[in-house]
C-alpha cells in the first residue's frame, strides 16, 4: 500500500482502525486468480493473530494451503471530496477532486480450521466481541445445541498469523488549513459517511 508520510499512522492507530472497522476484505490468490471474502475478525490480545469464519459453500477457502499469504483490508471511513469544498480555489483554480479515507492493511499467513471445537471458540469470541457494547447482549448459549451444531457443520475457520500492518488516514492534511476546515465543516452537515470522515478530521486536527 502506498502511504505518503502525511497520511501515515502509527501501528497502534492502525490496529485501532481494524477494531473500528470490525470486518475486512480478505484477499488471496487462487488458480483462477484473485479471490476475496468480506468477514468480521477477532484480533488476539497480543495482535499476532486474527481469526474469522465463513461458509463452507464459499469457494474462497478451498484453494488455500496452510501458510499461504493473505491480504486483509479494513476501511473505517470514506467520502468523496469535491473541489467546491476548497475556498482556496478562488485564488488558485488548480484543484482536483479526491477521496478522504481511513484504512488499514494487514498481511499474514493463513491456517484453515474445519474442526468443531476450534469453531466453537471462534464463533463464541466473535459474538462476544461485537455484543460487548450491546444491552442486552445476545449469547451463543441462547441457541439450541442441535441448531448450533448444524451451523458449525456449515462453516470453516480461518486463522491469520500477522506478518505486517500498515495504516493510512487521508484526511485533507495536504490542503491549506482553510480547505481542510471547509471540507470538515461541510462533511459534518452531510451524509452519515461524510460525518464519519468529519469526526476523524477533528481528531486529526
Could you please describe the fold and organization of this structure?
- It is a single chain.
- The protein has 205 residues and is of the alpha+beta class.
- It has a single domain, classed as Electron Transport, Fmn-binding Protein, Chain A (Pnp Oxidase, Chain A, Roll), CATH 2.30.110.
- The protein has a seven-stranded antiparallel beta sheet with strand order 2-1-5-6-7-4-3.
- The mean pLDDT is 95.
- The protein contains five helices and seven strands.
Summarize the structure.
With 205 residues, this protein is an alpha+beta fold. The chain contains 5 helices and 7 strands; from the N terminus they run αββββββααβαα.
The CATH level-2 architecture is identified as Roll
Say how many strands there are. Answer: 7
Write down the Rg: 20 Å
Kindly name the structural category: alpha+beta
Question: What is the beta-strand fraction?
Answer: 25-35%
Class, according to the CATH hierarchy? Mainly Beta
Runs in which pLDDT lies below 50 for 5 or more consecutive residues are none
Succession of helices and strands: HEEEEEEHHEHH
Number of helices: 5
Instruction: Look at the structure and give the mean pLDDT.
Output: 95
Main beta-sheet strand count, sense and barrel state: 7 strands, antiparallel
What global shape is seen?
elongated
Distance between the termini: 24 Å
**What helical percentage do the residues reach?**
25-40%
> What is the CATH H-level superfamily?
Electron Transport, Fmn-binding Protein, Chain A
Counted up, domains total 1
Find the CATH topology: Pnp Oxidase, Chain A
> Strands of the largest sheet, in order across it?
2-1-5-6-7-4-3
Amino acid at each position: 500500500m502506498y502511504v505518503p508520510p502525511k497520511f501515515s499512522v502509527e501501528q497502534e492507530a492502525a490496529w485501532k482502525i481494524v477494531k473500528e472497522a470490525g470486518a475486512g476484505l480478505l484477499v488471496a490468490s487462487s488458480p483462477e486468480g484473485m479471490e476475496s471474502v468480506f468477514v468480521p475478525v477477532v484480533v488476539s490480545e497480543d495482535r499476532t493473530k486474527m481469526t474469522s469464519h465463513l461458509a463452507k459453500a464459499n469457494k474462497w477457502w478451498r484453494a488455500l494451503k496452510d501458510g499461504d499469504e493473505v491480504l486483509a483490508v479494513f476501511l473505517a471511513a470514506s467520502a468523496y471530496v469535491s473541489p467546491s469544498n476548497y475556498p482556496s480555489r478562488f485564488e488558485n483554480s488548480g484543484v482536483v477532486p479526491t477521496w478522504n479515507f481511513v484504512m488499514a492493511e494487514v498481511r499474514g499467513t493463513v491456517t484453515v480450521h474445519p474442526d468443531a471445537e476450534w469453531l466453537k471458540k471462534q464463533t463464541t469470541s466473535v459474538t462476544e466481541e461485537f455484543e460487548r457494547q450491546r444491552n442486552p447482549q445476545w449469547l451463543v448459549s441462547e441457541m439450541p445445541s442441535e441448531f448450533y451444531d448444524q451451523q458449525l457443520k456449515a462453516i470453516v475457520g480461518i486463522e491469520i498469523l500477522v506478518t505486517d500492518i500498515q495504516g493510512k488516514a487521508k484526511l485533507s492534511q495536504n490542503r491549506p488549513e482553510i480547505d481542510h476546515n471547509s471540507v470538515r465543516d461541510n462533511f459534518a452537515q452531510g451524509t452519515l459517511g461524510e460525518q464519519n470522515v468529519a469526526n476523524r478530521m477533528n481528531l486529526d486536527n
